[in-house]
Task: structure prediction
Amino acid sequence: MSVPSPGTGLFAVVDGYSAGRFLPPAFDRAGAAVLHVRSTPAWLACVPVPDLRPYVGTLVHDGTRRTVARLAERGVAGVVAGQETGVPLADELAERLRLPGNGTRHSAARRDKFRMIETVRAAGLHCARQWKATDGPALAASATADGCFPYVVKPLRSASSDGVTVCRTAAEVRAAADRILGTTDLFAEPNTEVLMQSYLDGTEYVVDVVLRDGARHVCGVWRYDKPLRGGRRLYDKDILVDPDEAPVPELIAYVDRVLAALDIRHGAAHAEVMLTAQGPALVEIGARLNGNMDPGFHDLCLGANQADLTALAYARPDDFVRRYGGTVYRPLRAALVHNAATSVSGRVEAVDEDVVATIAALPTVRLVTPRLGPGDPIRPTVDLITSTLRVHFAGDSLAEVLADHRRVVALSDRVYRLADPARPVGSR
Result:
């Protein structure tokens, strides 16, 4: 993506983990600099520590008044969340500094899934029925009283399908809740309550956007293929959808109303929406980048990417609104993102670079990312975190892409050589 004119200023990225690592180079391309703010005293253990070299400075949040004063001294012109954990602090800092942001009125609802859905429901939008409780028997009792099985049980504030289970009996609801309660979620936050929602039957989609003062660009709509295995819906394929095809216009119109309900007016947002027989229903939305986003891949398939668009929206807002406000992506290629699942248990002895090279050489494969290294444990996939491999595909046709996807599925367990595997490599 090309930026028409240089940007200026210093911007703060809160918790630049995961896809947040793409923000420093994006702001640099927009002609702006970035400062890193860590929301927690220690680095989170669940994700790699960010590379701080692209930042002009870093600070650890140690109280709102002090952090606001330090950012004000540096003349920060905007505050951006790098990942989910950075959303509440980014909201608060921007509001205290009187900078463009989404405010704190609905900040909790942008992280807490129960509040999120209730806020959306209050705006008159279709969404799941839901309950929350501090113990498994209470949640099981609610399921029995309601009687419309199945239900989905999940943590209130986690991500990457952590702990999400489809339950078909009250006993399964209680067991799923008991597995969550008393533990910590993906971000090391305590699970003192657990959420249960009515099962949304339909096809799930992703709608990614970037906004400035409510002027919205849709970066892409992707259809999920998430097979159900053992009560867990596992990520397999994200398939780019033509924006002119049904149900994309309906999904975009629904997400626009969700954004308004949650006061998301600035920056990136990543919405997951189930298309049910009753219409679209929000699964959840994050006020941050899509975790599957890769700038080079998205530039290839879409001509732009969410990280660069976010930087443009903050550093050059007039350019963003003029070029992208109110617009929708136009695909350049058929595209698919695959997260590989495994049924193997053991410990990785080595990555087989020959197998990785074989995958990378397939005609539509653009990026191969093994998620494990020597010494790492490998276990049967239950969520996105335990997926073993991510592969980005782009080609002239979806049929060509799907053919290569099938080849990758056949090869994925051979990427790792295991020490004393509990099951033979390649078995499923």
About this structure: The mean pLDDT is 93. Residues 335-419 form a domain with the Aldehyde Oxidoreductase; domain 3 fold (CATH 3.90.1170.30). The longest strand covers residues 215-225.
